[in-house]
Amino acid sequence: LAPIAxxxxxxxxxxxxxxxxxxxxxxxxxxxxxxxxxxxxxATTTETTTITPSPSETGSPEASPxxxxxxxxxx
Length: 75
What we know:
Strand content: under 5%
Number of helices: 1
Radius of gyration: 58 Å
Oligomer: single chain
Number of strands: 0
């Protein structure tokens, strides 16, 4: 009898796949802003004026100026 041959199968190597993907993405954003501002301003001004009357307005006699210097001849 001839010997029986036993065949052993070796599995093929697993292939390696490398994929490179290149893409460009463009996004367009439109923004609308509506702003309303209301400003209310109140200004209050208080002014006080003090008037001091002169002596002639109050009836008091005004001070006479004192003589100064040498009187002119003939006075």
